User: Fold this.
Amino acid sequence: MTDFTSVCDILGELYFKYKDQGEMDDFIDFNDLGLPLAYLSSENLCKVSDDGAKYIMETWALFLETLKLQDTGWDSLDEILASKADKKDGDLN
Assistant:
């Protein structure tokens, strides 16, 4: 299972890189609290409350569900996206 700090780093990077790209507008709009909170936390700009952590973890679960991936202890957004690309190529089922 991915630790909370890594979840914030991954979701924060996702938010920073894709918030203005258009490819993930629906996901970003729906997770309008969890993604910015994760980003702010990953940049050490805020301390996340218990309620905030729930939003972040709900966003994390939706992110993995959207990609049809299990939480196997991810380290980075690049690792997740590479795994998803492998899955599309048929390497993972």
In short: The chain has a mean pLDDT of 91. Residues 12 and 39 are 4 Å apart (CA to CA).
